[in-house]
Amino acid sequence: MRTVDLIQRKRDGLELSREEIEFLINGFTNGDIPDYQMSAWAMAVFYRGMNARETADLTMAMARSGDQMDLSAIPGVKVDKHSTGGVGDTTTIVLGPLVAALGVPVAKMSGRGLGHTGGTIDKLEAIQGFTVERTREQFVRQVSDIGVAVISQSGNITPADKKLYALRDVTATVDSIPLIASSIMSKKIASGADRIVLDVKTGSGAFMKTLDESIHLAQAMVDIGEQVGRETVAVITNMDEPLGLAIGNALEIREAVDTLRGEGPADLEALCIQFAAYMTVLGGQAASFEEAKDRAEQAIRDGSAIAKLKQFIHAQGGNASIVDDPAHLPSAPYIVEVPSESDGYIKAMDAESLGITAMMLGAGRATKEDVIDMAVGVLLKKKVGDPVQAGEALLELHMNRDEKVFVQEMSDRARQAITVSQERAERTPLIQAVVTKQGVQRF
Q1: How far apart are CA 143 and CA 120, in angstroms?
Q2: Residue 2 annotated as catalytic
Q3: Residues 25-80 pLDDT 10s
Q4: Where is the Pyrimidine nucleoside phosphorylase C-terminal domain (predicted)?
Q5: CATH no. for 332-421
Q6: Residues 166-198 pLDDT 10s
Q7: Per the residue annotation, which of 80, 89, 122, 161 is the catalytic one?
């Protein structure tokens, strides 16, 4: 089998067999196939695509390229949730304790943030003492004992995906549905999930900017799940404005605590209840979606969800007192309000721009080497559709620097990300579509 022949076959729009795809992935991972040939193959896929069977075979070849988590020792059906990335996306930190409180084990491997999207691991490390480094035995034992654990991704999980993604990033082949879908799903499968729930973001703050693009990606991932025996549900959610009010690590932890108390932003709570319901049904702990929603709402009301959060933080070495006293979280010394320049209504928010503003304050990384400031970020005071008066705060900047030029630059940037209109704007529905093996339901 020759690599050049497989490049040519895909260039000409022909199918590759499972054996041919495994030959490519194994050879590239082992260093037998050079970058320039894999780049040519990725570009051929970019233009010619892959069918559902090919994409599933690519996914499994990448999942098998390194370590695979064996979660069979954990009782029950393990349901994983993945987000394609957004701004203020605190759902994993809420969902882990909430779903565990409903009897579904949550064994989660998460990543760090890069650019304008935050990472769950970074956010959790805003809690003093919290550690994401666990042996596999400790990880499995913790989930078996308390129902939830979150660790950082192993260095040898899907090494083929890491190598291929780095190549795609510098060869303009990132925007390929089969390559994106197989990248995401290979990590979920290698992480040991029995069932998978996907949060596919769409809008200005998301990777996929349009609903049709997002549905296309969701369908590809659901198809992979079905092909490899992992039931998968994908929910398309709005990212035209940040989720919740907080953008920044400690700010988002505080917001997650509020949400588990039933005191969080309405959109974040609604989305978490929705995802908790899907995870509970897939985990076999509820007979219907409505029953699962009711149980999730009850777990927030009766305090079992917030109690599970305390247990989770304590189990991973963190200072669980932050749940009752947020003063134990990092806080920025300077808080600057950015006021509206006119009366009206919030018409639109550029979620990506607000995420970049938080990153520039120090809440995120422009490069992998950057050090995150856990205390800083953006706290919204308004959402799309809300009325506002001239001089009223649109948001707060939580800062560790008070130089006049820097404060002015950040304030101007944040203000420009929010559009105020004389006419009340309709809010985009939070959930825009659900994709399952039965098809697409749009809302």
Answers
A1: 18
A2: no
A3: 999 999 999 999 999 999 999 999 999 999 999 999 999 999 888 899 999 999 99
A4: 345-421
A5: 3.90.1170.30
A6: 888 889 898 899 999 999 999 889 989 899 999
A7: 161
Residue of 82, 162, 163, 254 marked catalytic: 82
Instruction: Please spell the DSSP secondary structure of 307-359, one letter per residue.
Output: HHHHHHHHHTT--GGGGT-GGGS---SEEEEEE-SSSEEEEEE-HHHHHHHHI
The reply to whether 161 belongs to the active site is yes
- The radius of gyration computed from the CA coordinates of the chain, to the nearest angstrom, equals 22
Using CA atoms, how far apart are residues 325 and 377, in angstroms rounded to an integer? 20
Task: For residues 94-121, give the mean pLDDT.
Answer: 83
CA distance 109 to 118: 15
- pTM here? 0.89
What span, in angstroms and rounded, lies between the C-alpha atoms of 122 and 286? Answer: 32
Who contacts 137 (Cβ-Cβ below 8 Å, separation ≥6)?
A: none
Nearest to 231 by CA among 127, 110, 80, 374: 80
**SS3 (DSSP) at 288:** coil
Query: Which sign, positive or negative, has the C-alpha torsion 332, 335, 338, 344?
Result: positive
169 in catalytic set: no
Neighbours of 31 (CB within 10 A): 9
CATH topology of domain 3-63: 1.20.970
Dihedral (CA of 67, 49, 219, 110) sign = positive
183 is catalytic: yes
Please state the rounded mean pLDDT for residues 275-301: 96
Interatomic CA distance for residues 326 and 292, integer angstroms: 30
Q: How many CA atoms lie within 13 A of 143 on its CB side?
A: 29
**Domain edges within the chain:** 3-63, 79-155+164-324+431-442, 332-421
Q: Which amino acid is at 122?
A: D
Active site (annotated) includes residue 347: no
CATH class of the region 79-155+164-324+431-442: alpha beta
How crowded is the C-beta side of 209, counted as CA atoms within 13 Å? Answer: 4
